[in-house]
Design a protein that fits this description.
Blueprint (H helix, E strand, L loop, with lengths): L5 E6 L2 H13 L3 E6 L1 H10 L4 E5 L7 H11 L5 E5 L4 H9 L4 E4 L4 H33 L11 H13 L6 E4 L6 H10 L8 E5 L5 H9 E2 L11 E2 L1 H4 L4 E5 L6 H13 L1 E2 L8 E2 L3 E6 L3 H7 L4 H7 L2 E4 L10 H16 L5 E2 L1 H9 L5 H15 L4 E2 L6 H4 L17 H15 L4 H8 L3 H11 L8
Parallel strand pairs: 1-2, 1-3, 3-4, 4-5, 6-13, 6-14, 7-10, 10-13, 15-16
Antiparallel strand pairs: 8-9, 11-12
Helix pairs in contact: 2-3, 10-12, 13-15, 17-18, 18-19
Length: 460
């Protein structure tokens, strides 16, 4: 501890108090004494102490009363009880009442000091744990550390990796198709980092023309170009102490790639029209839906910038590779839409659910969310039918449940497919019953059907 631990000593004998005060001050404690139980209660009510050392047998107010008062006052302060008339019964009573330790007089000075120091360490741990729980609760209340939704193996691996790298300040490059939730993961990393109290700022590098993007990123000084009527702080500077998310960094023009490289190398920016640099303290997370290595080979992206950004690579799987998450995501999106409208969440009818489960979702999570919003708006009741979904999702190629083609030497996959289709046909297209007959989870059956790229009529 940087400061002296505060200690309250309670005893009805002044000689013992004087002895303990001298001893424990010499051992580095800030000692307050109270002669008698009543004086001890007053000291407890007056303020918090790191540790309390109290005699058990005192007139009117006993050591157990001191223990009870300490627990009511703070709940974090360990209490050590001491007595010259120790017994097994009184020791058990003290421990059951919450005493940290029970020591018998006379005791060795080094033994008492060792117990007090352990008690201080114990309190420190309890205080830190309480602060940690409060911080977690505070962040959870504001939604800061809510885990992105997903239980599929690949997505869970991504989340675990994000949690592992979050406490560092290393630059992160998130790669994935459009709509996979790259900004969601970037915010998750930020919220779990040591920079969580700082800002999280983001910009889409492909959404602005080059001159405007440069001004937004690095800032400008008054008069540096037409319309620059005052100094403007850039986003790199504004994100000081936090995280700056560069979305679609693969769209950044070559001239700005050079300036971004300087930021990563020198940790400073030069505003447009300025002659002096400004230091920046920011963690950079970049994202792209492009294959940047291929862009480097084509000469569209600087190799040195790619290596600076690609310190930690995080690859997000497309939604078609995490179909186990479809039901979870749908439930969450429908709940969110219901909350916005002040109504109960709607549900998908069987045919609509089948269409959603076999669709490839090229637009990934964003497309799923938009499709559900489309369906919620069009549906009047509490049930979303297939025709409420966008047409591209419901107009799928239909094939017979069992193909008529025969194979001279069928593979195991062909045999498995034929058997699954045969069971589906035998069960009248009911996937739930078919999954039970097959001995697999319904989500596994949906995945297999999606791989076969077939759609079947399903009964409710």
């Amino acid at each position: 501890m940087n400061q002296k631990p505060s200690l309250l000593v309670v005893d009805d004998e002044s000689g013992i108090l004087d002895t303990l005060r001298i001893l424990l001050k010499n051992e580095g404690f800030e000692v307050t004494t109270a002669q008698g139980g009543k004086a001890g209660l007053e000291q407890i009510r007056a303020g918090t102490h790191d540790v309390i050392l109290s005699d058990v047998r005192m007139p009117q107010v006993s050591g157990l009363d001191i223990l009870q008062a300490a627990r009511e006052q703070d709940g974090m302060t360990p209490v050590i009880l001491m007595t010259a008339q120790a017994s097994l019964q009184s020791a058990i009573q003290a421990v059951n009442s919450g005493a940290f330790y029970y020591i018998q007089k006379p005791f060795a000075n080094d033994e008492l000091v060792a117990i007090l120091r352990r008690a201080c360490e114990f309190r420190q741990v309890r205080v830190e744990n309480k602060q940690l729980k409060q911080e977690i609760r505070r962040r959870t209340d504001r939604g800061a550390v809510s885990r992105p939704i997903g239980k599929s193996k690949r997505f869970v691996e991504v989340l675990r990796f994000a949690e592992q790298i979050a406490p560092t300040d290393s630059t992160v490059l998130i790669q994935g198709e459009s709509g996979t939730g790259k900004e969601v993961i970037a915010r998750y990393v930020h919220n779990l980092s040591t920079r969580t109290e700082g800002p999280f700022l983001s910009i889409n590098c492909g959404a602005l023309p080059e001159n405007l993007l440069e001004s937004e990123l690095f800032g400008h000084v008054k008069g540096s170009f037409t319309g620059a009527v005052r100094d403007k702080q850039g986003l790199f500077a504004a994100a000081r102490g936090g995280t700056f998310f560069l979305d679609e960094v693969g769209e950044m023009p070559p001239s700005l790639q050079v300036k971004l490289l300087r930021v990563l190398q020198e940790r400073e920016v030069i505003p447009v029209g300025a002659t002096e640099s400004i230091p920046v303290d920011v963690r950079i997370i970049a994202a792209t839906n492009r294959d940047l290595e291929e862009e480097v080979r084509r000469g569209n992206f600087r190799s040195d910038l790619f290596y600076r950004l690609n310190v930690i690579a995080l690859n997000l799987p497309p939604l078609r590779d995490r179909r186990d998450d479809l039901l979870l995501l749908m439930e969450q999106f429908l709940q969110n839409l219901a909350a916005e409208q002040g109504s109960d969440p709607k549900a998908l009818a069987s045919e609509a659910l089948d269409a959603v489960m076999v669709y490839e979702w090229p637009g990934n999570v964003r497309e799923l969310e938009n499709a559900l919003e489309h369906a919620v708006v069009l549906s009047r009741g509490t049930l979303i039918e297939a025709h409420h979904l966008p047409e591209r999702i419901t107009k799928r190629r239909k094939e017979p449940l069992v193909a008529e083609r025969s194979y001279r030497n069928p593979t195991l996959e062909v045999i498995e497919r034929a058997y699954i289709m045969w069971v589906l046909q035998a069960e009248g297209g009911n996937k739930t019953r078919a999954a039970e007959v097959l001995g697999i989870d319904p989500s596994t059956l949906y995945r297999k059907l999606s791989r076969y790229e077939e759609q079947v009529e399903v009964k409710a």
